[in-house]
Amino acid sequence: MGPKGAVEIIFRSEIGDQEKIDARTEDYRRKFANPFVAGSRGYIDDVIMPSQTRQRINRSLDMLRDKRLENPPKKHDNIPL
C-alpha cells in the first residue's frame, strides 16, 4: 500500500480536506515510506543502491561458490502410508 492509501485509511475523518491529506501524505512518505528510516530502526539489514546491485550480487555469489554443505545423514526415511 502506498502512502496516499495509508493516509486515507488512517485519517479518514479528514478525507474532505485535500490540503490536509496532501500534507499528511508527504509527512507519512518522509517518516515511513523511506528505506533509510527502516534501516536506521533495524527493520532491514542494509539498503543497496541501484548502482551497486550487480556488484553486491557478484560478491555474494563469489563467496558462496566454494561452499560445501556438511549435513549429517538422514536417520529415518518416510514410511509408506
What does this structure look like?
The chain has helices spanning 3-10, 18-31, 35-40, 53-64. It is mostly helical and 81 residues long. It has one domain (3-63). Helix 1 (3-10) packs across helix 2 (18-31). It is elongated, with a radius of gyration of 23 Å. The two termini are 45 Å apart. The model has no long low-confidence stretch (mean pLDDT 86).
Mean pLDDT: 86
Q: Return residue spans where pLDDT drops below 50 for at least 5 consecutive residues.
A: none
The largest sheet is: none
Order of helices and strands: HHHH
Global structural class: mainly alpha
> Rounded to an integer, what's the Rg over CA atoms?
23 Å
> What's the overall geometry?
elongated
Strand content: under 5%
Say how many strands there are: 0
Helix content: 40-55%
- Measure the end-to-end span: 45 Å
* Number of self-contained structural domains: 1
State the main characteristics:
mainly alpha; single chain; 81 residues
Topology, element by element:
Elements: H1 3-10, H2 18-31, H3 35-40, H4 53-64
How is this structure best summarized?
Helix content is 49%, strand content 0%. The chain has 81 residues and is mainly alpha-helical.
